[in-house]
Amino acid sequence: MPPVVYVVSGGVSKFAKARPDKTFQAVVKEAYDYAIRDIGLTFEQFTELVDGSVASYFSDHFQRQLMSGIMVQDYLGLCPKPGHRVEGGGATGGLCFQEAWKSVASGHMDICAAYGFETMSHVETWKGNEFIALASDVSFDYPVGGFYSGYYAMMVTRHMKEFGTTVEQMAHVSVKNHINAYHNPYAQKRNRYTIQDIRDAPMVAWPLTRLDICVMSDGAAATILCSEEGLKKLEQAGAKIARPLVKVTGIGRGTDAMRMADRPHADYDTFMRHSATEQEKSSDETRAYYRRLWDKGFRYPGVHSFRAGRTAGNMAWKHAGLTDPLHELDFIELHDAYTSSEIQTYEDLGLCRYGEGGPFAASGKAFMPGIDYGLNLPEKPACPVNPSGGLIACGHPVGATGLMQAVFAVWELQGTIKKHFGDDRLQVKNARRGAIHSHAGTGTYVTVSVLEREL
Amino acid sequence: MSKLPTHRPETLGGYIVHNLPFPKVLNEETLALLKQMSPIQIEQVYQINYLHSYGQDSPFFAGLTNGVFLGSRDPKTGYTYANPRGHDMFTGDETQWVVLPNEGTVHAFTVCHFGSEEFLPECPFVLALIEFEGANTLFLTRLMGVDPNAASLDWIGMKVRAEYLRNSKLKPTDVYFVPV
Fold first, then answer.
1. How many Å lie between the alpha carbon of B3 and the closest alpha carbon of chain A?
2. Does A379 score more than 90 pLDDT?
3. At residue B52, what are phi and psi to the nearest 5 degrees?
4. How many domains does chain B have?
5. Residue A151 domain-assigned (yes or no)
6. Cβ distance B138 to B107 under 8 Å?
7. Can you give the residue range of the structural domain that contains B83?
8. CB-based contact B66:B58 (threshold 8 Å)
């Protein structure tokens, strides 16, 4: 039985298009100080107790600065304690969270700080697109017209062709996430949009418009993880840790080929053996559904699905003892860099079957209760997805994003959204269990972590 | 022994500023006011030429310059990659070069109306993943000869054929595809 790992606190800087008012170290300190203040310790008290850290940031290019991580470690007064940087594209924050979990679960540390940041405003948007596109194969993919929105748009044209997914279904995701963020003071884009607004926005990569796509941001996030021993140390020093306590109960990761073109197009048996969820395997009706998909030419994962996401989800659900994520999770913060990838991720995480993500997006199941979206949703919310507004509305300062999800998840599970947001409309009532999902590249690294409040 | 320089030379170029707002008198109060100062932002240039090697994939690019589209095949299983790959991902074996057909079909596509800095002048352009008879994986390419302002899902499944640049640039864009 692995040791219990708690997530006791977190902080997020305001995500913004640009933060020229502070250097990246000082922006991280905003989030880090918030996390320390939230448990009622002074900077000196926490520095005395914390055993080390993990730093998360994606690109050295954005800042033209190598070893930014140690500059933050230094600025936060964490030297000479142990620390290291993790990097895995868009999943960097999720990987960082899991590395901090490992540091505590392994017994190496009792208290570990995980902090992440990105400063994307130092270059023009098109140069930023170029930096991000360098996270595709520079021999074969980048020179053809390297542009991540283009890569995701290709995935979705295939999704639309195979499953009948519509642009209006994708727009439901954008409307939902933007309106959720309307109540989140940390979010970069707090706007009420309609389906028509999403479709009328400038086309970026057909059929994805500017409002189907997250924006580049400057921002930081930090969170504090600890063991039972670490919890004792913090409380003995006077920390006021919110009850119920929040612990990590599931960890999953997956990977896939860098070049989307190289992804396998596997047969039904291979899918069932390696990738089907327990729920899918145990249902005659679902096995027949997939047989019919294969008869129509479906192959897995192809370019429409994320095998890494399915692998990470299955692993995390198994670790946490879940078999029906849609009904056993109270919310999910997932990596919606694109409306289309939120739909793809519904399927990867087993909230619905492959091919059913489009109708699921427009069903209402992933919406928050009690919020007027101006949409006619046929079903009641089942598991709100991105109650914070996700990447599409909060912004995506890459290294901070996965940790931002962890912070919002902890606040949801503590029941402290009103305290932090000044508004409780995004508080998922009686939230007991939630998941965070972090995703890189064209689905190359994906992490899923399950967080749960103690009863 | 010559006299050692004791002053840094004043040079032209870059940023030359005079009279940035600053307190005339420095005391506790005026120093604290510096906290209200707006950030100073300067330009920094970052330009590099890399000598990139295609390594074991080099014959693919030599093929393109000769109008030949090469793929990679696992000798035991026959699993064939439309985008060359030195070793098979399932067996771990070294792959063999095979000639792929010059015709394929569009598997997925998009029209990029925006992009990375390097490709902005080419917008709108069409990216497509092409599937080939006898190949298990796809190839990313530019699709020409279709109207970027009339994108349609009907393009998926369209038969296309390879065209080659006459003046090779030793890039994967030396080959592109057009409707048959």
1. 37
2. yes
3. -90, 135
4. 1
5. no
6. yes
7. 55-179
8. no
A201: left (phi over 0), alpha (psi -120 to 50) or beta: beta
Mark whether A347 and A447 lie in a shared domain: yes
The boundaries of the domain holding residue A336 are 250-453
Residue A56 maps to a domain: yes
Q: Are strands A433-439 and A331-333 parallel, antiparallel or unpaired?
A: parallel
How many domains is chain A partitioned into structurally?
A: 2
The answer to whether the CB atoms of A262 and B172 lie below 8 A apart is no
Q: Based on the domain organization, do A240 and A257 belong to the same domain? A: no
Contact B153 A160 (CB under 8 A): yes
Same structural domain, A109 and A258? no
**Same domain as A262, residue A240:** no
- Does residue A212 belong to any structural domain of this protein? no
In a domain, A405, yes or no: yes
- Report CB contact under 8 Å: B156, A161: yes
Q: Are residues A286 and A401 both part of a single domain? A: yes
For the stretch A240-277, pLDDT in tens is: 999 999 999 999 999 999 999 999 999 999 999 999 99
Tokens of A48: 């005395």
Q: How confident is the model at residue A58 (pLDDT cuts 50, 70, 90)?
A: very high
Same domain assignment for residues A279 and A407:
yes
Q: Does B146 touch chain A (CB under 8 A)?
A: no
Question: A56: exposed, middle or buried (C-beta count within 10 Å: 0-12, 13-18, 19+)?
Answer: buried
What's the CA gap between A232 and B51, in Å, rounded? 55
**Domain co-membership, A59 together with A107:** yes
Rounded CA-CA distance A305/A207 in Å is 17
pLDDT at B120: 94
Sheet holding B80-81, edge to edge: B80-81, B70-73, B96-99
Q: Which long-range contacts (CB under 8 A, 24 or more apart) does B159-163 make?
A: B159/B103, B159/B104, B159/B105, B160/B103, B160/B104, B160/B105, B160/B106, B160/B128, B160/B130, B161/B102, B161/B103, B161/B104, B162/B69, B162/B102, B162/B103, B162/B104
Q: Are A256 and A238 in the same domain?
A: no
User: How much is the CA Rg of chain A, to the nearest whole Å?
Assistant: 21
pTM of the model as a whole = 0.96
